[in-house]
Write a structure and sequence with these properties.
The protein is built from four helices and no strands. The chain is mainly alpha-helical and about 90 residues long.
C-alpha cells in the first residue's frame, strides 16, 4: 500500500504538487506576486537609467512589488470566498 502511494506521488507533475499545496486565495496571491515581480524586473531591464540593476534593487522588487501585489490579491480573493459563503435565509 505504501509503495503504491509513493509511486503515485512520484508520478505527479510539479504543477499538480504545487496546486495541491497552494489552492484558492493563496494561489491567486502567489500568481499575482510572480506577475508583479516579472513585470518589475522587465521594467528594470528595459529602462536601466531609472533603476540600477543590482542585488539590492532585485531584493526590493521581490519584497515591495511581489509582496504588496501578492498580499492585495490574496486579500481580495479571500474576501470574495468569504462573501460567497454567506447564505441568505429563506
Amino acid at each position: 500500500m505504501a509503495e503504491q502511494r509513493n509511486q503515485s506521488i512520484a508520478s505527479q507533475s510539479i504543477w499538480t504538487r504545487v496546486r495541491g499545496a497552494f489552492h484558492g486565495p493563496v494561489l491567486v496571491g502567489v500568481i499575482a506576486a510572480f506577475v508583479a515581480i516579472a513585470l518589475s524586473v522587465f521594467g528594470m531591464v528595459r529602462n536601466p537609467e531609472a533603476t540600477p540593476i543590482n542585488l539590492r534593487s532585485l531584493f526590493l522588487v521581490v519584497v515591495l512589488a511581489g509582496g504588496s501585489w501578492g498580499l492585495i490579491a490574496w486579500a481580495i480573493a479571500t474576501a470574495a470566498v468569504e462573501a460567497g459563503k454567506d447564505d441568505i435565509p429563506d
